[in-house]
Amino acid sequence: MRTRSVTALLAAALTALLLAPATPAAAHNSLQEATPARDARLTAAPTQVTLRFMQGLNPSYTTITVSDAGQRQVPTSAPAVNGATGTVTIDEPLGNGTYTVAYRVVSRDGHPVQGSYRFTVADPAAPAPSAAASSSAPPSSAAPAAAASAPAGADAASEPDASGARSGDDGAPVALLAGGAVAGLLVVAGIVLLVARRARAHRTDH
Predict the structure, then answer these.
(1) Quick one: CA dihedral 186, 192, 195, 200, positive or negative?
(2) Rg of the chain's alpha carbons, rounded to an integer?
(3) What does pTM read for this prediction?
């Protein structure tokens, strides 16, 4: 009876150890891939911006905007949401220059997550945008509708600048978590084996 109780406790501890690392990662949404990618230098202006996230998106709380170097918001369509992917279509041709993509989405737990990144258009055949045009345009927020679209009472969690494919950035933490889980499994298995051997030796002595 004593051996069974110890084994049950060790099994419960092992289950908690294996499940704990996955909980924080699954809590909040995050950008997994972007097109155009972060810091991309394009020789042809894009006509769309597509962002793929870790979790499915709620169309009612998804905002994606594009702004130029003068902080003028570029006209785009409303985000088209398909599962975990959001896409906006750019309504006017982009001239040469640096542009900022800003986004705001909501995680499964209702927590808003926002972030931004830049890309550059460097089309040899296109003229550079004039300074006068940029300075005359009134500045606007990168995400004017984001605050209104977020759930009431929720504070946004700012994300670092996103890259086109961030699997390389996440590889090290995932490997560490997996290694820790395996090590914990081996330790618990060793304890269970030791307790079982002692219990058998105790029954043999009596």
Answers:
(1) negative
(2) 26
(3) 0.55
Burial 152-171 (b: 16+ CB within 10 A, else e): eeeebeebeebbbebeeeee
What confidence tens digit (pLDDT) does each residue in 53-104 have?
Answer: 999 999 999 999 999 999 999 999 999 999 999 999 999 999 999 999 999 9
Residue 85 sits at φ, ψ, to 5 deg, of -115, 135
> What's the residue count for the chain?
206
Q: How far apart are CA 23 and CA 40, in angstroms?
A: 33
